Amino acid sequence: MASLLEAVTPLADLVAHTPDPAAAVAGVRAAAPGGPAAVAAALTTAGADRRLLPAALAFAGAGPGCPQSELAAVAGALEVLVAQQLAGRVSLVLTVPEFLTAAHARFLADHPGVGARRTSGVIADIAAGAVRELTVAAPFLAAVAVEDLLPDVRRVLGAGGRVTVLTRALTSRCPEPSGANIAAVAAVRAAGDGRPGSLRVRSWEGPGLGVHLKAVVGDRADGYLGSANVTGGGQRDHVEAGVRLPRTLAAPLADWLDLLAVALTAPLPER
């Protein structure tokens, strides 16, 4: 197996730099029964470097004439190696309003290895992958964006996990309470009603913004950190940028958010 993994490593490097490596791997899996030419076509469609692809396929033993059984083994090794690379990779995340759609397409063409997925999709992925713990931190919340996370809030709390919301301006102790934040947190609390998990709400209630970071972390293993609030504007309408963090950075970020939660006040009774 070690020699196979070594042989497939250059191919995995190419796949890891395609716009959507996971989709590229899935394409290889689907194309493998069709033979080497089908696999090469799938990787070309996925955005693999056309100049380097033939040599990488040959080095992996997946060139012309490769038996289907060996091609399946190469596809399996490719999946393992690409997953390992992605697990430790920081990737760019963007909110792209309509007026930047063409510029975004040009950016992806110029930087195919960056990926630069959209904010709403990344946050949805992180929330969907959370099993034991989901943390959302933002100074501005909106029910229209929080609503997309409520199924995952219900699922995590229903399984006995913990959901944390860190925000600001939820009570009259704040000089300017935020009606939007209050409504969004109320929706989260309603989603957790009757479920055995723990819902933790913490808020900055002093003057100014206080809490200004924007982050979403799932199971301390996958995270978003950037400029986008959990609002319709932050997710879709404004120009925003951030990064998706692997476990090596998501876990320390989760620790920092836990410390922040301890330092903030609890504006509502905990469950």
From TrEMBL:
Record-linked SUPFAM superfamilies: Phospholipase D/nuclease
Cited CDD domains: PLDc_SF
Annotated protein name in UniProt: PLD phosphodiesterase domain-containing protein
